[in-house]
Design brief:
Helix content is 31%, strand content 33%. The chain has 162 residues and is α+β, with helices and mostly antiparallel strands. Strands 1-6-2-3-4-5 form a six-stranded antiparallel β-sheet. α1 (4-18) runs antiparallel to α3. The radius of gyration is 31 Å and the shape is elongated. It starts with a helix and ends in a 24-residue tail after the last helix. 6% of the residues are buried. The model has no long low-confidence stretch (mean pLDDT 78).
Amino acid sequence: MIRMRPLLAAIPAFLAGACHAYAPSSLADVRNGDKVRVLLTPDQRQEFADPLPGTDRVLEGSVVEVDSGRLLLEVPVVTRLEGMHVESLRQRVEIPAAGLADLELRSLARGRTYSMVGIGVAVIGFVLWDQLLSDARRGTKPPPGPPEEDRRVGIRIPFGIR
């Protein structure tokens, strides 16, 4: 029998991986508000050593301003969970055009997203169908009653009230 809870917990992870794709782009093609991923040159990464944590040369964020000579990017620095709310603290970073080794624009991968949603719906449907069939295989007999020794024997004692 398939356990439904771990299976349902894994579905959002599959869907999240299928929803977005990155395509190569340039500063001329990027607009304010676009989500991008940039690869910094080693020299530019050294310049950002203090303000940005980590050692990775790849940054992901939202474009605040863009022109032919620079890119102003808002990147998440710290993500924290408060109850059921996820909050990201962000920092704005100005990257000169010479500091960009690569620039990619994030977009929705419709084909992969639709196929993953279809797979998720099929898996949930299979689990529900399996649960319905297992209930039918068990039958609809009423639950057994208490054992014979636990049943009370009623004795009538006639008495009169005057």
